[in-house]
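In response to reviewer comment 3 from the previous cycle, which asked for concrete evidence that the modeling workflow produces usable outputs, we include below a single protein chain processed end to end. The sequence was submitted unchanged, and the resulting structure tokens are shown without manual editing.
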Amino acid sequence: MFASESEKQQRDIHAIGLTLKERGVDLKDKAMVAPGPEKVSYAVMAFGYLTAFTAYRAYRGFFVILPAVFVEVRAKLERREPNSLGVEDDIDPKTGKLKLRSTILMNLGAALFTTIIIFKSAVGALVDKITNNNNTSSSSSSS
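The workflow returned the following structure tokens.
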């Protein structure tokens, strides 16, 4: 049925991961209308599901999508698709594969770019959270 056990595991993880957000949001909605102690338990469960969903998305981004992008870019370079960009100098004529220097530079550049994006996103989210908390506290104190 499946090409390999690994592909089956990937599909199972993907199917489970997709349900995490939906379950988390449902539990969050229940927490909003639940009375007293139930509210806390629903909120904790929602937090758990949404945290697991975030971990799933991070896993999928770093270990499924990003490697697939690297493989595709490397394949395009080896097929010499961007002919006018001077890629011919980066391909070993004996093997037809990227030279080690080019592979290292490409991977370092991709890692640096990814790190910058992650850092920018994390700092941006933190600044937004701080800004929203300050706006909320100043609005409630001025009322």
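The CA atoms of residues 32 and 39 lie 7 Å apart. We consider this sufficient to address the reviewer's concern, and the full set will be provided in the supplementary archive.
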